[in-house]
Fold this sequence. Notes:
With 580 residues, this protein is of the alpha+beta class. Helices cover 16% and strands 34% of the residues. It contains seven helices and 30 strands. The strands form eight sheets. Strands 13, 17, 18, 20, 24, 25 and 26 form a seven-stranded antiparallel sheet that branches. Strands 12, 14, 16, 21, 22 and 23 form a six-stranded antiparallel sheet that branches. The protein has a five-stranded antiparallel sheet with strand order 11-10-3-6-30. A hairpin with a 3-residue loop joins strand 24 and strand 25 (406-419). Residues 1-31, 110-122, 259-265, 346-357 and 571-580 have low confidence and may be disordered.
Amino acid sequence: MLRWQSLALQVILAASILAFADTSTESKEPSNAPYQCRASAWVRAPDMVPGDIIAGDVRIKLNGSCDDAESYVLGLRYKERIFWKLRRQDAPILKRPEFKHNNMDSNRDLFQVWMPSKQVMTPDYNETEWMAYQNSVQNKELWSLHEEERIAFEIKTPLIGAKGAERLTTTFTTQFGILVPNTNYPPGVDYRHSSWMIHSWGDTDVIYSESIYEYFVEIWFGNGTISEIPAGITSFTPLYVSTKNDTPSGNLFIAPADPGRSLEPVALRSNYTIELSFPDGVYQNSSVNIMATVHRMGYTNRTDAPMELCAILNGANIIEWQPQELKNRSYPFMQFIKTLVPSVQHSQLLTVSPPFNPHPCRGISFAAAPADLTGEGHISSSSSEPLSLSIHMSHDAVPDFSTYYQKLGHVLDLNLHVKPDPSEPREQNSGETQWEKQTARMDETDFDWVPWLPLTQTRRRYLFGKASLSVVSMQKQRPVRSNPVHYLSDEARQPTFVYVSDIADLRSMSPEERDLIAPFAQPSITVFAKGEELRSRYFTDYVIEGQPIYVGDTWAHKVLSATAKGQRERDTMDHLLLVQ
């Protein structure tokens, strides 16, 4: 029978701990522990899923003189943050001064002594201009800096000890349970190996966001101090009710890759659009076929023709920032993020996944003669035969999700290769331009006297377009009975600790009854004071050894080890029975 008394006692103890923590004279930082007492904490647990109940393990180890330690508390929180550095709208526009390298003339400065502080390629620049530029960049009054953090939930449960209790066990291991409400929280994103990739120059805007599900252990000491020890990070898998498999379609206009580059306008160039048809949602670790039809509209006397269409699936990206201050700002740097996936599961998925081309390309052929649209034979429209592009979504792809600070999504890049009309000027390409200069006065017989061959490959013009592709998390657990509440909703509830011995009884209850046990979420937001802003706060740049442990990895190792042990025991029993 479900021990409601124990659950009530747990809530009372947690409330008393929180009350005592508020009266502590010390902040809850790891440095608050007596310096001669060193503590470590580890958790191993599966990822959280809406409407589920998980069980995990926690281990705490004290080293040194820790006689004053009185109790252990296990906690779990989800927090997200955003940082931005934006050039003020009324600030002078930054323009980097030009410079050039004087390294082409090998006969210059025959007696020049290269100082250690100087580079081999010494730039020629105007020092006055660069000093003015530097002062404008470093003038903090011309920039807007902001950092804020939102804690969506923070839960705790006492593990052992109380005031007046005997000396704590220095090595302590126990189990815990967590009831996860039917609320969709954001996917657990792995920033451990991606934050160091995000760089920018001092003269550019910076927008950076990160989030973390973190386990922690509080060690309470007799002198009133509290030491918080990190115990690992975990993940969350948002789920969605399956709907009918709609296949949306739409037309995508494509254009040159770099609109900002100065190209000579060609009024007679043809226009191309791509008609796409693909599933409404793509699951992680699955492949999807995208049907595409290329449409051309242009003059009938033009010989340009599409040759090949390529599809490139980018990783998850921030397709929209939620804060109003960022609505009209664009940030060109990708964060290269992925979901937290157990490494053991990762290796297994790689062995069973079918081979695929990450950048599939298909040749294009037109089905019929152009259809005259004007009646005068000048402008025509033609379409290609439908072609199929197979896209594979990786197992660690971040599912689409709208968080408090950002909207995560995937973008499919389409690259159309076009054979241009001979009358069209070449696009600016340094290699081809230099080649044309060298061969401008050469004919076929001249190439017998030079060590290179004439340029015979087909000219190509590249047009690009983007399409949004929705990614849905794998349904690893049982089918979802009702669509979970979004964590930003007023009806959102937060996870809560439960006793392991109550898990069986809790699972026998209906999802609606279990959901009532979870309290409503009470998020809080903190804005950091001026001068204390940090671009990255949760994960350490460059130092791989200092990154937190993903508890899903250690849980997967535990489960696989137990499975392997059970299989060995069954094999041994089968062998003994066979021998007998």
